[in-house]
Each structure stands twice: as structure tokens, then as C-alpha cells.
Amino acid sequence: MPLPNLPTVSRIPFGTPAGPRWLVILLFLGAPLLFASNMVGARWLSGSVPPVTLAFGRWAVAGLLLLPLVWPHLRAGALRHASPGMLALLALLGGVASVAPQYGAARYTSAGNIALIAAMSPLLVAIIERVVWGVRLRPAMLAGIACAFCGIGVAAFRGDVAALLRFELNPGDALMFGAILAWAGYTALLRHRPVPLPPMLLVWVVATGGAAGLLPLVGLEWARMGVPALGAQAFWGMLFLGIVAGIGAYGAFARVVGMVGAAQASMSMYLVPAYALVLGAALLGESLHPYHAVAMALVLGGVALGTLRLPARAS
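The chain above was modelled as a monomer; its predicted structure follows.
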């Protein structure tokens, strides 16, 4: 059975020679599930592992596990083909600023809210491209941005108009917005200043660079909060996040991009909030409320409106 029609210009070519139909469908549905599991895992570990320590552990695990895979590229000097400054900036945005605040947000807000805010990344990328590179914003993009921000407002203020008037913003939602803004900057930078590295080597650079950048912050966190007692839950949680979020999600998404193209593959990320809401309710006992449905409809509707182009009419 084919997937339901997605809101895109053309149907995803699931039958192309780029890969077996079943594998494309599996990865298309599986990649956003892996990204959503990162948010649920962070929420599960929020009471036992401090956020910066958790982010460092995730990237340390990913970097170590990826090292044997990328070692031939490192021996061949592949990193010489990329600017050290650009790699450092990508590691800062993609490995530090977009991860540690996200894990900090998990201490205050639900996995569903985290995923809803993360769904705004395509629109934030468009805003950054406009500000930095002068890329024109279409009227549909502006409408989509407004619609998505309304959805985030509904989620952030829990559908409570009184809280909106008092501007009682959950600190976790604010942290997550900062994290996804950094991720949007990382994405926009890759789009306009691509680096000539194999995908997994770039993930390794982000992982090791992120771990190195987070290490001084871990020291500050431990000095302020004390050295955490990391038990079995922390160990298995970091291992899970390193494998699933640090390697699996990036690898699955990269494979989908190779099979159907970046524009088509990005549509799969719109499934992340739905997965996160369901997983949060099933595994963590998080409550689902009517405002979640309203927020999801506004965010995903805004993203679809702002990022998709209608097919040109035949003359």
C-alpha cells in the first residue's frame, strides 16, 4: 500500500532505482521516529543526568562508535578539504548550542512540546537565509511563519489565554526555541556553505567537536551542581542517545536524502511531533490535551504552507 499523499509538489518516488520500495518507506517512517526518541529519551533522563553532562555523553558515545567507520577518511586527510573555522562553527551550532539547551528544556517541558518547537526549523532556516543571505521570503512563507508561531504560542502557554496575557512562558519552551534556532543556523550554513566531507565524517566532526566544546561546560555544571552520581540508567541512556540520536537518526535521514532527495526527505521530519506526543504519552505518562492537537495542526500547517511550492499551472 502506498503512503498517503504528503503535502508536497510531487509524490515521493518510492519505486525509484535508488533503493527498494520497502526500504525507502521504512527509512522515511523510521528516521523521524529516531529523532523523536531522542526527545523522549532526554525527558526520561532529565531527573538523573544534568543536561550538559547528557549532551557530552551522547556525543562522546557517537564519536567513539563512529571512529572506526571514518578512520580511513581521516588517514587519507579528508579533513584538509574543509575549512577548520567552518568545521568549528558547525560543531558549535550542531553539537553544542542545539543539543545542551534541548536537554535542559526536557527538565521543564514535555517531549511533545519539544518536538512541536523543533518542527519550526524549516521556517527558522528561511528567516536566517533572508537575514544573512538575502533570500526572498514568499508571501506563503510569511503566512506559514505566522501560523507556526501561533501554534508554538498555543503549546507554550498550554492553550491558556490568561497565561498568554501574563506572558507566563515555560523556561523549557524558551530553551528549546534557542536550541532549534541554533539547529536552523547549522542547517542554513550547510546549505549555503557546504563542506566537502562524506556525511558520516561530518557527523563525526560534529560529535567530537561538540564533545570537546561541551567539556568545559561540564566542568562548570559539576562545579555548580556537584558531581552527579551516574548509575546504570545514565549509562544506558547515554548509550541509547549516542547510537539512536547521534548516529541512527542522522544516518537514516542521510540515506533517505540519497534515495529521494533533500526536499522530499525533509517531509518525513514533519512526523516527529506526532511520534513524540504518542511516545511521551505511552512511555512517560505525559498527558495529551486538546491544545496539543490545535498546536500541532497550526505548526505543521504553517510549515507545510511556508516550505512547499504549488505546482505551476499549465498555460
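DSSP finds 14 helices and no strands in the chain.
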